[in-house]
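quick one before i forget lol
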Amino acid sequence: MSPKYVVLGAGRQGIAAAYDLALHGEAEEVILADANPQAAESGATRVNHLLGKELVRPAVADADDIRSVT
């Protein structure tokens, strides 16, 4: 079974982490989560474009609110 990853934050480092995990982490799926839904969507779209496949999906989660990340 391939691993699934969650990256909190769709800024520069989050997008880079999602790309690296998708490319080198043998990922089945990478979830790119951010409090800003547009940032999550844009980041996931960018990484999927770079990968040439749909492996990253966006999600809404606020790291300051523990209930939104569980």
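fyi The longest helix spans residues 37-51.
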